[in-house]
Amino acid sequence: MRKYVIKRILISIVILIIVAFLSYVLMRCLPTSYIEGIARAKSQQPGSKSYEEWMEQLTAMYHMDKGLVAGYWGWCKEAIRGNFGDSWYYTVPVLEKFNSVVWLSFVMGLISFFFEIIIAVPLGVLAARKQYSKTDYAISIVALAGISLPTFFFASLLKLVFSIKLGWFDLYGLIGRDYYKLSPFGQFMDKANHLFLPIVVLVVLSIGGLMRYTRTNMLEVLNADYVRTARAKGLPESKVIYKHAFRNTLIPLVTIIGGSLPGLFSGALITETLFAIPGIGYASYYAMVAGDIPFSMFYLVFMSVLTLLGNLISDVLYAVVDPRVRLA
Questions:
Q1: Burial 143-178 (b: 16+ CB within 10 A, else e)
Q2: Diameter of the chain by CA atoms?
Q3: Separation of alpha carbons 155 and 251, rounded Å
Q4: Distance of alpha carbon 261 from alpha carbon 192, whole angstroms
Q5: Cα–Cα dist 218/245, whole Å
Q6: What pTM was computed for the model?
Q7: pLDDT digits (tens, 9 = 90+) for 208-230
């Protein structure tokens, strides 16, 4: 196991270097750049240097005056030391801005992930147990709806019904206008009120795939010979389902669940943007729109690390879930 993990980590490092280089190339190929706006704004200040001098200084600072390979190598040397530069759009260090927004996305992701598991997995098992029944059809309809609904449409529908028509929730933002006048518990409830609809969107749109995946794998296991043998021995149906069948569906589920864990830190770009929740997805969206290369590069590399980490976690969990699996 140790050799396998070390080998996978080394392969992941190589993949990360390639992905980071491709991301850097894409960032350098942007048709417009926020740095030009910075130079233009600074050049218009009283007693300031000219636009050309500011462009020369800023491009040298961010390795934009070199070729792709040389510029990428300069970025790598700074990134290894933990220095990702200052965000052009937010005008603060990239890591400082990241640390201020990522934990809100993590809380949202953790809550939605928890509800996704406790809703999708039991419903998937129930649909498999009652195949072709009304219960199965109802669960399948819900799952297909969750898979098919676009995030923008579903979020807008919830805002129309619960924010505009009923007035139960605010349309956007993390806090209300009277937030600072409330008690600590009132402030907590105010934030919970603003996060309710975004979390509902994340949960509803994520349970469909996991529900169908659980149902499909559970049906495959229920048709196995050892399940028929357990039933022939007269074991209770609940014991057959949850001790013999369900345990053997965990390996495919680990692929989904293990890969989802790092995604807790990646944020939900579309959902956060629609509800104006200042998480990492929301911050990265406006940074990319503004051509903020330092923040965008960090976010893309961060997403790549999470993806590689998720794949590694899934592979390692195989051996944890099923003792028959051995990784050489």
A1: beebeebebeebbeebbeebbeeeeebbeeebebee
A2: 91
A3: 33
A4: 22
A5: 7
A6: 0.80
A7: 888 888 888 888 888 888 888 88
